[in-house]
Amino acid sequence: MSIIAYMFEIVLLIWFFGCIVTYRLGNVLLVEGMGIKSAEFGMLVVYAASILLRVVLPQVGNWFVLSVLVVWLVVQYFCHWHFTIFGATPEKIRGYNRCFEGSLCIVPRREDRLIPDFYHIVLHILIVLNLVLLWCAF
């Protein structure tokens, strides 16, 4: 189980790297990278360091990765899903749609509800999957 958990940690790391550089599938924008001077880069460094700590000192690293993933999931929930579930102000929805306007959406954007784009849906699934796999590895 541990090798599968490590594999999915790397998959998440690679997927999240799209927040630093821009990922495209042909002409379709998945996510526009924010560069190394961004909060996303800081999160990438923290997550990568937690994985490294897990490899070097598994007993400490497991808990560190778990903590990072839980905090990351909570942040992602309040940045995306909270507004999808409970609604948001028109200004918030317009700003969100403008920020991710070029990115791939599998559920059409709406003016009355915040809808996460494809990249963020996959990101959130990977975070949850990594949490489950790590928990099972304990």
Structure description:
By secondary structure, this protein is mainly alpha-helical. It has one domain. Helices cover 67% and strands 5% of the residues. The chain has a two-stranded antiparallel ribbon with strand order 1-2. Helix 1 packs antiparallel against helix 2 (39-56), helix 1 packs antiparallel against helix 5 (118-137) and helix 2 packs antiparallel against helix 3 (58-86). The longest helix has 29 residues, at 58-86. The radius of gyration is 16 Å and the shape is globular. The N and C termini lie close together (10 Å). The chain crosses the membrane at residues 6-26, 38-57, 63-88, 118-135. Keywords: Membrane, Transmembrane, Transmembrane helix.
Q: What is this structure's SSE topology?
A:
Blueprint: H1 2-16, E1 23-25, E2 28-31, H2 39-56, H3 58-86, H4 90-99, H5 118-137
Antiparallel strand pairs: 1-2
Helix pairs in contact: 1-2, 1-5, 2-3, 3-5
